[in-house]
């Protein structure tokens, strides 16, 4: 990858992002802003955040191939990259069978989507794939700059690194900046439990050490503690570092609860 992500970035639903927050997290030293929630093909929010900042990278985490056609996405990529050279990364993914009515052969659909991006001149070095299982991790290695796994643990990071070789690995990690374990788990479980309705996530978690009981909604304490780290900023930073030690190049940190105070509290510990 030719674009610098830094060691840590923030991951936030696009609707919760604005230019003021972008400018603040840039000042705090984060390297990348990841746009969650399947932003539309015009990628206007990415452009707005780049316009409001000077050096931070903006990445999509991810554009959903079922809701954003590749032609318009490629046009948006070139518009943004011409205005902010090297500061934008296009993350794409196949979403979830349970949430997309026209879901079909997701692997082949990803390949077809990448073919259109190639034909439109979207640089492989500035795109990543949402990847969990071996087959899509291999696709991320061969047809993109790397992978952006979501809802994973350092164990999955270690597994993904073995497949990806030297290509980029940038997992997402949820955190709750709260030293009260019960309250922090409630915050984490409220979000984590929503993803346990999606088979691709539960299958992946079971492949990497969790039981069927762990992944049954709303999730066991063990699962929630792993997927939504909690504690002091220093304790959370050690959990983030576990991904880096397992082979991640970058970790996209998603603060649950009130995001900006959390990112402020974590900034020094993550440096």
From TrEMBL:
Its Gene Ontology cellular component terms are: cytosol
InterPro entries for this protein: Bact_Lucif_Oxidored, Lucif-like_OxRdatse_MSMEG_4141, Luciferase-like_dom, Luciferase-like_sf
Q: Which GO terms describe its molecular function?
A: oxidoreductase activity, acting on paired donors, with incorporation or reduction of molecular oxygen
Q: Which domain of life is it from?
A: Bacteria
Boundaries of each Luciferase-like domain copy? Answer: 20-119
Gene3D superfamilies, sorted:
Luciferase-like domain
The membrane-spanning stretches of this chain are: none
Question: Which NCBIfam families does UniProt cross-reference here?
Answer: F420_MSMEG_4141
> Can you name this protein?
Probable F420-dependent oxidoreductase, MSMEG_4141 family
